[in-house]
Amino acid sequence: MIKKIVKLKVNGDLCEVMVNPNMTLLELLREGLGITGTKRGCDSGECGTCTVIMNGNAVSSCLVLAVEAEGKEVITIEGLAKGDELHPIQKAFIDNASVQCGFCSPGMILSAKALLDNNAKPTETEIKEAIAGNICRCGGYTRIVEAIATVRDQGK
Length: 156
Fold this sequence. Notes:
The chain is α+β, with helices and mostly antiparallel strands. It contains 5 helices and 5 strands, in the order E-E-H-E-E-E-H-H-H-H.
C-alpha cells in the first residue's frame, strides 16, 4: 500500500500526517494525531459519535477518507473551548443537564455548532433535523434540543 502525506488544518493547527489510502478521517484524528474526543461508534455513519466539522459542515468522520481531508479545515470537540472557557454550546449542554453518559456529546455539540454557524435562528424542527444523525443512548434528546435552543436564543 502506498502511503500519502495529508496536509490539513485541525482545530486551527496545520498538520501533516502519513496515511494509508484506506485510512478514515476518524482514524487520522484518533490514531494519527491523538485527538480522542471524536468517538468511534458504528463505523457506518449511523450513530454520529464521530461527527466533526469539516469546512463548516458536520460530517461523519468514519465515512470520510483521510485523503479526502487534504487541504480542509477540521474542528473537533477539542477545538471549541478557548483555554478554560467553554464554547457557549458546551456550557449550554452542562447548564441544561444535556450530558448524561457523554458518549454522544461531542457529536451532538459539533452538529449543533455547524447548524448555528449556518443558521443563527433555527426552528425547533431544524434543530431536531440537524442532530437526527446523532444517537443518544440515554434518550436525552429533549434536553439536548433545549440546550441548542438556549444558545440560539442568546444569539451566540
